[in-house]
Amino acid sequence: MKLFNKIKCTVALSAVALLNGFAFAGDGVEQSFYPYKDGFPTADKIVPGLVINKDNADIAKDVLDPEMLKQVKAGWVEITVGKSTDFILNQAYIDASKNNVGKVTLPKEKGNLEGGYLAGRPFPEEPDLNDPRAGEKLAWNFQFGYNWGDGAAIDPFYWRYRNMNTDKVERELKFDFHFLNWAHRVNDEPLPEITPNPSELFRSIYVHVQEPYDVKNTQLLIHRYQNDLKRDNAWLYLGFQRRVRRLATGQVTDSFLGSDIMIEDFEGYNGRISDMNWKYLGTKSMLLPFYNHNEQALTDEFKEKDGYKFVDFHGKGSCYPNVTYQLRKVYVLESSPIDSNHPISKRRHFVDAQTFTLPRTIIYDRAGKYWKSWIIGQAHPDHHLAINKGSGVSVDDSFGMMDVQAMHCTTGQFKGIVDPNLNKPKMFKVQYMRTSGK
Amino acid sequence: MRLKLHYWNNISVFKKYTQVVGGVLLATSLSSYANDPVEISGFVENATSVREDRGLSKFRNTLQLEFSKNLNNFAGFYDVSLNATLRGSYDGVYDLNDKEFGAKAGSSISLEDQLVGSVPHGQGLGSTNPIPPYIGAPLPPTNVLGVNTLANPNSGMDVLGEHLHATAGGVAFGVPVRPCDVDSRGCLNGYMDKSENELRFSEFNDNLDFIREFYFDGSMDLDSGTLLNLKVGKQQIVWGRTDLFRVLDIINPVDFSRNNIYDELEDIRIPTWSIAAEWQYGANETFDDINFQLVWVIDEPRPNDLGQGGQPNAILDAGSFFRGMNNCWENGCTVANFAGGAMATDFGPNQIGIRQANVPSWSLDNTSYGFKIEGVYQDIGFSVNAFSYLSQLPSLRGGIEATNSFTGEEDVWPYLIAFDIEFPRINMFGGSLDFYSEDIDSAFRVETSYSTGEEFANTLKPRLFSDSDVFRWVLGVDKNVFVRSINPNKAFLLSFQTFGQHLLDHETQEAPIGIVGMPDWKDNYISTFLLKGWWMNDSLSPQILTAYDWRAKSGVVAPSIDYISGNLRFTLTANVKFGDGAKEFSDCRTCNPFNPFTAVPGIHNGDTFDAGLGGFEPLGRFRAGPIGMANKESELQVSLRYSF
């Protein structure tokens, strides 16, 4: 009888815990994915239609990062405020996230998540400044974010190298980029992982240069593993050699094809969590480049058969995406490299709390001086290509990477396509580079 | 029309077939898909080089056009495309510096004679018009010595090796150096017989080399889940993982006449009509990726273009050696320091030299074929390769019927330096791998091959050649290193490679006068080192490339600077050679093929063998290697390219 009572008591306690867990899970996930259900952030005088420029920049001092504020004050760029909008991520990703609440934990040291993480946002709970590892959790949320969904392509993808002082376009490259999640998939079959996957890959990025001639057919393949302690593998196919070269890690922190961007900068941060020390610095409301693509002042300088037009650029050196910014809930996150030979001292990321994208990052050189300004414009999928509608992907749609020391920038104009047919697994094999290379 | 018919009548059945098929396919595909866009890109380029002591050595103007056209799905294949690369060039060096490399090149020559200093070509011992003291020399009355000076006059020639070394007691003979339509002496039919226009416009020849590539590419998903990729047409098929060295990258022959060993292989591979079928299995429980490729080169066999005598770039100066030797065979020649190791001797026709080059024609038996298994296992990329092909390098086989200089008798004379050029079948088996070492932050790549059937000069053998199995390997390491005081934001690329070659059946022997046998080193190593940096968003890229042949003790250092501005690319390179240069080896003067007339007193005693007297020519070239043999070819090279 005692034993029965003990069992009954245990079951009851477990049920309470379970219910509490569900209640907690629901709150955490709701808050994480629907932060604006009770209204969008507001700031004094920051209203849609407002143009922030050097004459009135101070009204935005609380909603722009300090470096962007300086640039506005210097007359480098004007920012037009747009209406804040919800960027609801894919429902399957949200659903998967519910299973992580209270289960997924960080390892004692750096390494892999524990608790049977399968998919979704690993740590939907609100970060806590008192949690010394809150920054690491935010980083994981980005790493396992729904950035390009289970797979997507950017094709074409125009990069321009610009002199910020003269406004001169020095070089233009035309790419196609492709992304594929091998594991932690939530939407496109097979779920949750593409098998066989003997090396337990997590994600791959394949890059192909279409123009200009001297780098035509250059291809880059990056494999990231589920084991965060395992270093990425990267290969480069050089069209003029027709050979695949395995890249040393140092090459991912070099400028990529002469741009102002290193491979590690892709998507805001493209590396292992264990390569950095992460620090959560707080939550605030900020203006970030989130917008409806079809409502922006687009350029028709690149002709597409389907009539798609690309984001235009303006400001100093035409380095800034000419898009509207909206007030967003932002986590301020700092990352500093563990490798003492790394070319930077730290990055300050302004993480969009709803999408966990990195639309704004400030990069500091080894001496700690402000070096680069990284803007990645985020377009709502329902106001973009028809195929993207309903995808629940916050579409990377434009970028400007400014080297403020060299007064040089690289800009990017995207045609992001969330279509699994453009990102078949065969594309992310080393052999594909040899086969498709000239 | 007459010209066209003449051309058509003189090309092989295989070429006719491929050109007709190619033309029909091109016309069909372009007309059927006329509405699809054709992607066109390319460049125009001027490459100019100036060589020490020779002046202008290149003034090449190139137009290259690359076409790519997506076609409809065909017979179950998707992503079908037609890809073509056309290249035409004009090298003005044959007009602008024709006294060195064109129709006016060469001069009258004299050959070294250790008795009298030097002897004009055609006036040595045995000549009908000898200089003193060879007038009335006590030769056997049956001798047939003597150069046919009507067919082989003393003009338009260089002395073999004269731009690299003095004769220095060794052998030498005259090498006609004018284009073969200007001077046909020594031109090997079908092998090294380019006319002035074929030198000027190197792609416009019977092989239609202006069509660098023309192939269809398509993929098919098989029921097994495997993907089949098929490439059919004139193409480059590239194997291996290393730069510069061709251990596995042997499917296409290469054109060394373009810029010796210093151009990208991409530009000097000679594309061939081929079929490459690759089954891509993807990942399985063991491998991250596994693929199987079959290659069949259906083209007629083509040797490497080594450059002919009189061209600015002739690797190992083999073209000069061959041309001089064929001239000796056809017309006779004066050989420096021959008789008694001291007297310039006039050989008559059909006595010594190269009789002919037996370049294989097309037949099924002469096609090349092979397979490759390539994949990724954990962090290691690997391949296993096998290829069977006709040698792209010439083999000089002695043992041909020749005339005894002293008796006029025709026979096969052991150890006689009279050859045919052959291209034997070679079977290569090899593999490669690459991996990254996190501990030293470096990427490694390795290639190895084991080949059978390769032939090498060997003065220990009566036919003066033997075959040897060969083991080759390359180890390459890439590392990126910051030198922040010079470039704070961009690492330098350090790339180091060492190539090794081991001849398993190598043989040499100490003979009474010197070392005899195989002039190639039993073991040799060539190392390369590249240091490259980038500034101004990669638009400015200086580099230093060095290569050193450890046994030849010769090297090259090539600092260059590359600048890109928009569509323009400017490259300035200094190609500076250093080291020993020419090397000596037995030249078979003391082989005694015409016993007893050629015997060395006290050594041969009626036997025929190589006693070992030697010099720089002709076999020293195999010891000096391609770097050593170009020791006096330091150049300043400038290229300007506009891409579109």
End-to-end Cα distance of chain A, whole Å, is 79 Å
Query: How does the overall form of chain B come out from the CA principal axes?
Result: globular
CATH architecture of one domain in chain A: Clam
Shape of chain A: globular
Q: What is the subunit organization of this protein?
A: heterodimer
Number of helices of chain A: 5
Q: Stretches of chain A where pLDDT falls below 50 for ≥5 residues?
A: 1-25
| Class inferred from helices and paired strands of chain B | mainly beta
**H/E order of the elements of chain A?**
HEHEHHEEEEEEEEEEEEEEEEEEH
Question: Strand tally of chain A, please?
Answer: 20
Helix content of chain A: 10-25%
Helix segment tally of chain B: 8
Q: What does the largest sheet of chain A look like?
A: 16 strands, mixed
In short:
The complex is a heterodimer of chains A (438) and B (644). Chain A is built from 5 helices and 20 strands.
Task: Kindly describe this structure.
- The complex is a heterodimer of chains A (438) and B (644).
- Chain A has 438 residues and is α+β, with helices and mostly antiparallel strands.
- Chain A is built from 5 helices and 20 strands.
- In chain A, the strands form 3 sheets. Chain A has a 16-stranded mixed β-sheet that branches.
- Chain A starts with a helix and ends with a helix.
- Chain B has 644 residues and is mainly β.
- Chain B has an 18-stranded antiparallel β-barrel. A 3-stranded mixed β-sheet of chain B has the order 14-20-17. Chain B has a two-stranded antiparallel sheet with strand order 4-5.
- Chain B is globular.
- At the A-B interface, strand 8 and helix 5 of A face strand 1, strand 10, strand 15, strand 21 and strand 22 of B.
